Structure of Queuine tRNA-ribosyltransferase accessory subunit 2:
Amino acid sequence: MRFAVTKVCGGGAKARAGMLQIAGSNIETPALLLSTRKGLPAFVSRDLLASLPLPDSLFLHVCPTHFMEGPPSKTISNIGGLHHMLGLPDHVLIAAAGDSIESLPTSEASNKFGASFETPAGRRLVKPSDYMELISCMKPNLWASLADEVPAWVTEKRNKVSVERTLRWLDACIALDEDSGANTLGVVVGGSSVEQRKLCATEVSKRNVSGFWIGGLGLGDSPEERCSILDAAVGCLPPEKPRVVSRLGLPEEVLEGVAAGIDLFDSTYIYQLTMGGFALIFPIDIVGKEMQNGSLNSSDGDFTKINLRATTYRKDTSRIVDSCSCFTCQNHTRAYLNHLLNVHEMLAQILLEIHNTHHYLCFFRLIRDTIKTGQFDRFRQQFVQDRRAYLAAAVI
């Protein structure tokens, strides 16, 4: 794996564009890791993955704890690893223990031996040796070390314990890794404590890791705390290695992360939208057009999404987004999706996830374009401003 920063915003800003060379592919960053259920997106099958933008859709986040109940790890290894099991030899699989929905960490039940997770098979204590057995059999391209993630409201003492355990487990995982940490993402934890975040980031940087995974966000922290956490962690990390963050899913949260210098985002936002019947509709072709007018205004939905379950779309024969080139928008109408959702047909989730994934990948492409052209800060400010203006008007 090779990573190079190709563009950094001027004026002391931290937002950056980069190029990640991995598994024979060159993928630009900032980029999105597609959330999966046992290796594939919840409603997008292997053949439908090919319809998504390339190479943007090559990143898949897999959760090893999903495979604790199912095919024995040796069976996956005998098949040739997860790439061969899924039939996705060209995709980049990045493994991390939690997936933000079904495998949330439970800090109260974690101890010095391992991290406790609520998994589809119930609560499980995962030791570094168990975790590395799964990793060695699955053979992902990159994997995040086992970490003790704690919510924002724990004490400073508990934050300190979290950092100590995470560093100890990182050393144990690297020692058990056949490649001696060459494909490892060291996890930065420390709850809402800026001091512990800095300490953990500094110590993880001293290890032989390929990049960094900033964990423990989205567990009760406020936007203000999140900003301080990101600045503290990123400020102690070397710039030549990629940085991944979990649980920053909303568009404005992604923009906040990019502004802090994050390169990859693990998010369940698309899954949550799809399950709720929502479709993304915000403009993604604005670099040369709307940005010149200083406006990103959209008169549809809540500026970012629409609820296709609503009766207003029952007779709407237009596409979700007129300019969208995804399979769903090219072949189906809002009225048809409204019908599928209201009769509880699973095809609704399939078509919605295709559109939402395609749209959000294009959003990340837009972010990269604004960084390259020096318009990112302006774009971010205008996007957030328009979003807040809509929410304020909706309350009134």
Notes: The mean pLDDT is 89. The chain has 13 helices and 15 strands. The first strand starts at residue 2 and ends at 8. The chain has two domains: 2-273, 277-289+296-394.
